[in-house]
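Hi V.,

Quick status before I head out on leave. The structure for the redesign project is tokenized and pasted below; the design run finished overnight.
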């Protein structure tokens, strides 16, 4: 397993939360290219990690409640499955500005960890087939690699089949 990263000056709320929880994680930094069409695919390519191990953090509105969905960058989010996973009826992608305000992160850098307001979170069940996965560390060009169980525990996430393809 990766060694525990030390809290660094300029850490993000996500890395601060991981350090405070005593969770083992590794930080991966890369040069973000603003012209790349996909933040998640860019991260996978830059780190040399399979896109099914790199997960994107999406914010949806489920029956009026902002809800976080964490799915592999290799696929997409099944909104009906997300709604069902949290006992809702209807889900739609949240307004990006609202997602940024609620999480405290910018689009393309939203982390499921260390959010301004703790939102209900659903992690795609495919995460459990990997020893570690990568998620945004709270800034474009910065990812954290950690065990999916640690991510689920720290975010209070429900595991469900919310990813497609």
């Amino acid at each position: 397993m990766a060694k525990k990263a030390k809290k660094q000056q300029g850490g993000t709320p996500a890395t601060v939360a991981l350090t405070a929880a005593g969770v083992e994680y590794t930080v991966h930094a890369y040069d973000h290219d603003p012209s790349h069409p996909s933040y998640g695919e860019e991260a996978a390519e830059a780190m040399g990690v399979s896109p099914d191990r790199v997960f994107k953090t999406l914010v949806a509105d489920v029956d009026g409640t902002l809800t976080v969905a964490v799915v592999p960058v290799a696929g997409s989010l099944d909104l009906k499955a997300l709604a069902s996973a949290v006992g809702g009826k209807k889900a739609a992608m949240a307004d990006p500005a609202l997602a940024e305000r609620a999480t405290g992160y910018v689009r393309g850098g939203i982390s499921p960890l260390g959010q301004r307001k703790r939102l209900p979170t659903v992690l795609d069940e495919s995460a459990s087939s990997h020893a570690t996965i990568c998620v945004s560390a709270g800034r474009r060009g910065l990812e954290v690699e950690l065990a999916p169980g640690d991510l689920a525990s720290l975010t209070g996430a429900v595991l469900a089949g919310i990813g497609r393809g």
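Above is the designed sequence. Helices lie at 13-21, 39-47, 79-85, 96-103, 148-155.

G. will cover questions while I'm gone.

Best,
W.
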